[in-house]
Design goal:
By secondary structure, the protein is mainly beta. The protein has helices at residues 282-288, 376-382, 442-447; strands at 3-6, 22-32, 48-53, 72-77, 87-96, 102-107, 111-115, 121-130, 145-146, 164-168, 171-175, 190-198, 210-214, 218-221, 234-241, 253-260, 263-271, 292-299, 304-312, 315-317, 327-334, 338-345, 352-354, 361-366, 386-393, 398-406, 409-411, 421-426, 430-432. Bound molecules: calcium ion (CA) (2 copies).
Length: 451
């Protein structure tokens, strides 16, 4: 698709305008490549010229022509209706960078393409020549046209940290603020945005990850993994300017699903793995999960469960602030299998302070989205002073041992999934992951999601 833009034109001349003879309109066509295709563009100011020729009646009809994808300035004018009998050709006079006009070329057509060099300005005027080689009056000068070739803009657009995601009718609706500056903070003309999707949370976008290019600031992905616990979709976008420079990546957003199994009544263990900006307190989480009536957490200091929120009638109670990335237990009463989907911002990895009151203690953890751990025994091995790892079985309403240590050897071949909660026993206090206390700021984390 090619875009051409006419800056100024007049499609017909009034009879009054044709006082002293015959006049011809000249217009310039300003054109550039389709932004979606690529790189070149010309910034131009329009012109229109009136040309006197030794021919008869004036009935101008402006014709626009020359839409293509190169770096040419196409001037177009209209031959008077009765000029054909006397008009032989036109002289083209060209001025570069405000210099003197010189006879640049001749043309028998009523259009002429001046090859433009980036950063230079061009003006033309034309004069008709009749069959006796007599030159008519020169037309007025065109406006000055600045040519900006593709190579002149090498500064990519700024990245956005304003990408948000929400669920909309079973699809992921992405929304972002328009990018209006380049990476230097100067005004930028963005041509389009590229949307990338991957099942790897912290993927580096490749062209194969791009799922769409849009000029708008929203995108609805109907091919997301919503509803599938085995396929979760992670997104980021980039902005591309008119010259084809692609900016740095945006913040990341995602969808993530947990299975709700049919249970007479029982707890599920979910992690608040994404930030949708709306689940802040315990009661918010309870309200979000279908058929949920209570929210608890594991208190590792006392080695017991603590109630955080509950529902009485239709009213939820529970003002405790939750921690993004942390596991919670949700009491769900449903006879149908379903999924709980959370859609929102991907934050920094949570960090867990593990405790061992009396020299032994269980702690709840979430395997971070950035984790590359794939087996339960590797998870156990990565946790300082860990001796056993369990997962919650909502069907049995109990824990299942998935990894344990005998002597110095870890056993446990079960697959581990980022974003999933686990129960780990330690014999001394420690920090996981990372081995040091990270600067985890739940508020900053929250800002990355949807506001
Ligand atoms: Ca730019
Ligand atoms: Ca999914």
């Amino acid at each position: 698709m090619i875009f051409g833009k006419i800056l100024r034109a007049r499609s017909s001349l009034s009879q009054e305008a044709c006082k002293e003879g015959e006049m011809i309109h000249i217009s310039i066509l300003w054109k550039h490549r389709c932004p979606l295709l690529a790189a070149r563009w010309l910034i131009a100011a329009g012109i229109f010229l009136i040309l006197a020729l030794p021919v008869s009646r004036c009935r101008a009809q402006v014709k626009f022509d020359g839409i293509d994808d190169d770096c040419y300035l196409d001037f177009t004018w209209t031959e008077p209706e009765n000029a054909a009998s006397t008009l032989a050709y036109y002289n083209i006079y060209l001025s570069v960078d405000g210099g003197e006009f010189s006879n640049y070329d001749t043309v028998s057509a009523d259009t002429y393409a001046v090859p433009g060099d980036s950063g230079h300005t061009y003006k033309i005027k034309v004069a008709g020549i009749n069959s006796y080689d007599e030159e008519g009056l020169h037309s007025p000068e065109s406006d000055e046209i600045l040519c900006l070739a593709p190579s002149s803009d090498t500064i990519p657009p700024k990245s956005t940290d304003q990408l948000t995601a929400e669920e909309w009718q079973g699809a992921v609706l992405l929304t972002w603020a328009p990018v209006t500056l380049d990476s230097l903070g100067l005004p930028e003309s963005v041509s389009h945005y590229i949307i990338y999707r991957s099942e790897a949370p912290f993927f580096s976008p490749q062209s194969s990850d791009s799922i769409a290019a849009v000029a708008t600031t929203t995108y609805l992905d109907e091919g997301s993994g919503i509803g599938s616990v085995d396929h979760n979709s992670y997104y980021l976008i980039t902005a591309v300017d008119q010259a084809g420079n692609e900016g740095q990546i945006s913040n990341r957003v995602a969808e993530y699903d947990y299975t709700i199994i049919p249970n007479a009544s029982g707890y599920h263990m979910f992690s608040l793995i994404l930030d949708n900006g709306q689940i802040v307190k315990a009661k918010d989480l309870g309200q979000t999960v279908p058929n949920c009536t209570a929210v608890k957490e594991w208190d590792s200091q006392t080695q017991s469960y603590a109630s955080l929120a509950f529902k009485i009638g239709e009213t939820w109670y529970g003002e405790t602030e939750l921690h993004l990335g942390y596991p919670y237990y949700l009491f769900v009463d449903t006879s149908q299998e379903s999924t709980w989907t959370i859609v929102g911002g991907v934050g920094e990895d949570p960090v867990f302070t593990l405790v061992a009151p009396g020299g032994n203690g269980y702690n709840t953890i979430t395997v971070p989205l950035s984790s590359t751990i794939s087996l339960a025994k590797e998870l156990g091995e990565s946790i300082p002073h860990c001796t056993a790892v369990k997962s919650w079985d909502p069907q049995a309403q109990g824990y299942v041992s998935i990894a344990f240590k005998v002597g110095e050897t870890w056993y446990g071949e079960e697959a581990i999934h980022p974003g999933q909660p686990y129960f780990a026993n330690v014999t001394q206090g420690g920090i996981w992951p990372g081995g040091k206390i990270a600067d985890f700021n739940p508020i900053a984390f929250r800002k990355r999601g949807r506001n």
